[in-house]
């Protein structure tokens, strides 16, 4: 199976970068596309325990896709949920765009 840490780091980079480039005022189609993307991503994510937990997070906290900031904050919350589970430090979600708008930094 793929390395869960490398896969995770790359996947969060992809997800937060998608959030940072999502429109401030997405069309209905763009919002529907994002909901489908998140749903399918959670189903297809190739770490099965991770995927199960991510799907149940999505069921508890419906993805917010009405604007870039709504989606970025939602995703930051989802990432923090995993951070808590793994005993990692929580990230300050007021800084998500600053962290990701110019692409990955680590
Ligand atoms: P990562 O958590 O990969 O974070 C990368 C960078 O993102 C950090 O350096 C920081 O700059 C930034 N960041 C951190 N938190 C946030 C935040 N809340 N918002 C915005 N930016 C942030 N691993 C498991 O062992 N078990 C699991 O169940 C599991 N589930 C996962 C579910 C998903 C959907 C994904 C994408 C990954 C999952 N992982 C899981 C992997 C795990 O989250 C980490 O990616 C992995 O442990 C590597 O961690 P890291 O310390 O390199 O930083």
General description of the model:
The structure is a single chain. The protein has 106 residues and is mostly helical. Helices cover 66% and strands 0% of the residues. The protein has five helices and no strands. The chain has helices at 4-20, 28-44, 48-60, 68-85, 96-100. The longest helix is centred in the last third of the chain and has 18 residues, at 68-85. The chain is globular. The chain starts with a helix and ends in a 6-residue tail after the last helix. Residues 4-5, 8-9, 11-12, 16, 45, 49-50, 53-54, 76, 79-80, 82-83, 86, 88, 91, 96, 99, 106 line the site of flavin-adenine dinucleotide.
The stretches of 5 or more residues where confidence is low (pLDDT under 50) are none
Give the overall shape, derived from the CA principal axes: globular
What's the pLDDT, averaged over the residues?
95
What structural category characterises the helix and strand content? mainly alpha
Q: How many β-strand runs?
A: 0
Range of strand content: under 5%
Percent of residues in helices comes to 55-70%
Sheet bearing the most strands, described?
none
How far the N terminus sits from the C terminus, by CA atoms, comes to 24 Å
Can you count the helices?
A: 5
N-to-C SSE string, H for helix and E for strand: HHHHH
Rg: 13 Å
List the bound ligands. Answer: flavin-adenine dinucleotide
């Amino acid at each position: 199976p793929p390395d869960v840490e490398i896969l995770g780091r790359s996947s969060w980079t992809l997800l937060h970068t998608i959030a940072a480039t999502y429109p401030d005022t997405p069309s209905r189609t763009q919002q529907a596309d994002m909901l489908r993307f998140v749903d399918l991503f959670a189903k297809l994510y190739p770490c099965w325990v991770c995927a199960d937990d991510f799907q149940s997070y999505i069921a508890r906290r419906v993805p917010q896709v009405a604007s870039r900031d709504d989606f970025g904050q939602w995703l930051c919350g989802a990432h923090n949920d995993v951070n808590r589970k793994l005993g990692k430090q929580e990230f300050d979600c007021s800084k998500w765009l600053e962290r990701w708008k110019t692409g990955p930094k680590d």
